[in-house]
Amino acid sequence: MAIWNLGSINADLVYRVPHLPAPGETLASLEMSRGLGGKGANMSVAIARAGAQVRHLGAVGPDGGWMIERLLEYGVDTRLIERRSEPSGHAIIAVDDAGENQIILYPGANRAISELALAEQLSAARSSDIFLFQNETNAQITGATLASQRGLQVAYAAAPFDPEAVKAALPLLDLLILNDVEAAQLAEATGLEPRALPIRDVVVTRGVKGATWYETDSGSATDIAAIPSNAVDTTGAGDTFTGFLLAGLDRGKPMRQALDLAAKAAAIMVTRVGTADAIPDLKDIEDRFGPGH
Fold first, then answer.
1. Contact 245/155 with Cβ under 8 angstroms?
2. Residue 238 in marked binding region
3. Domain residue spans in the chain?
4. 64 among annotated binding-site residues
5. Residues annotated catalytic, as ranges
6. Disulfide: which of 16, 162, 223, 260 matches 31 by Cβ 3.0-4.6 Å?
7. Where is each Carbohydrate kinase PfkB domain found (predicted)?
């Protein structure tokens, strides 16, 4: 089995600041670093580090060779990543002493993915595979439609949140992952609470309050407790959670076990500074929580 991830690839420019800047404020950064990021790349790295096979569908510009190399180092299948003439995507991230962040995103090549190439790439997918996508690329509905037609399980991490994009994707989805703010916005846009959405599984993450899994066929709601951690940087924690969740499902774990694994990975992630380069692996989880995870 494999996970096909249509996702963004960004250079993350991270600035440590004493507090998040207010409108009009000029603020000196205490530190600066460049790393691999983008919600798609983060999730691909998390999937690979969780022991599953992931094929990344995306694009970089002429300046993006180092990002492909970094993904490959982490075990991501990069053979399907396009090289485009547009500059690679990048994010400017401010992180304060409490671990909260503020992000400015430039999409670049992430919005120039060829739909024709995507169709050709997905022709090799099998019905036992999973298709994952987010909201930082173009061709989302095209990719999800092609995957659904081929019988793949379709999973959607609905961020950055756009209610119209989610409404368009709903008929294609088997699994929807969103945070509690996004869930409230979707309920306002559709009139449907998470348990009433026409999707088999809905996962709502709630930060330090954990997560809730809604199994809409049965109407059940299962709470997943958050694991206490000394957070220093919350950037990428949600992407790590999603990647480990999908990897657990791909490896045959029941949803509850996959969610528990995802919560443990996110708990480690928030104790580290960085994005894709800071994502834990299964050995990190075993070292903290013991074997059998």
1. no
2. yes
3. 3-8+40-86+110-289
4. no
5. 239
6. 16
7. 6-281
